[in-house]
Amino acid sequence: MKPDRQFQQQPKDFWGHVRLLSQEIGYTERGTGQIKIPTFGEVEDCFHVLNLRTDRIRSEHGEPTAFGTHLLAYFGFRARLLNRVVQPLLMEANEAKRHFKSLRKKLKPKCPIPMNKQKGEKKQPAYLTAIINMLIEANAEGFPCDYDPRQLTIVTRNESPIRTLARRVDGAFPSAINPIAVWEVKEYYYTTTFGSRVADGVYEILLDGMELEELRASERIHVRHYLMVDAKYTWWDCGKSYLCRLIDMLHMGYMDEVLFGREVIERMPKLVKEWVATARQR
Any residues with CB less than 8 A from the CB of 211 and at least 6 apart, and which? Predict the structure, then answer.
């Protein structure tokens, strides 16, 4: 899922408004559990309660300004995207397992098939990660891939390091040194609550994204940055506010794409072909 162009390259205060209003008004509708679309009246009331000026969002005639109109449009877009598109894409363990077994039988992979971090009966292959790895291998046309970098991501120029990122990513193509693409996978099929580990994963993505945005702005080097997430119970039933934040981060320019659930099956082969084309030009 790529960002919508109409909401890219917004000023920082636009996202300051989005985050504040989401927190104060709420992310979901009571009763339905759907992602909420705030009304202009609710936005105004929020500003009054917080003793904030409203001239950025409200004209002297009482109508939304261009900024306010765009803000409301974004809330509508975000809600429709999550309610209608993202929710149906998210899988639970049994469906992910079916896709994993089907692809493993078809592709006969040699790439790593990692296990999850659960114990006992819940200890199973990390289905989403394995699906991603298999699809990368099947479409990489012989190029290498670091499926599990055990080092920090390094970007060099003229045989000299110019950036070393703060944390290790889940995967890099073709290598964690001068990668074309890096990605994180957040799958939580057997999680029964939305714990701090899940929330921390979102903030890790934000850190990576901010570092890569700075690299792009300062050095004109674009390392493509992806996030793949799955588990309907964890993300939809328990973590809708974090899904909203992921969509916000996507449009803030901190990720190139977010892939939700079964979306990886269709999208990953196309992405890998793009990476291969870039690798051939190096």
Answer: 163, 165, 166
Q: pLDDT tens across 7-44, in order?
A: 999 999 999 999 999 999 999 998 899 999 999 999 99
Instruction: Name the strand (E) or helix (H) holding 75.
Output: helix 66-80
Counting Cβ atoms within 10 Å, is residue 251 exposed (0-12), middle (13-18) or buried (19+)?
buried
Kindly state whether residues 58 and 107 are assigned to the same domain.
Answer: no
β-strand 257-260 against 224-230: which pairing, if any? Answer: parallel
Nearest of 132, 133, 124, 141 to residue 189 by alpha carbon: 124
Percent of the chain whose pLDDT exceeds 70? 100
CA dist., res. 94 & res. 238, Å (int): 19
Residues 6+ apart with CB under 8 A from 150: 168
Amino acid at the residue 73: A
Full residue range of the structural domain in which residue 40 is found = 5-89
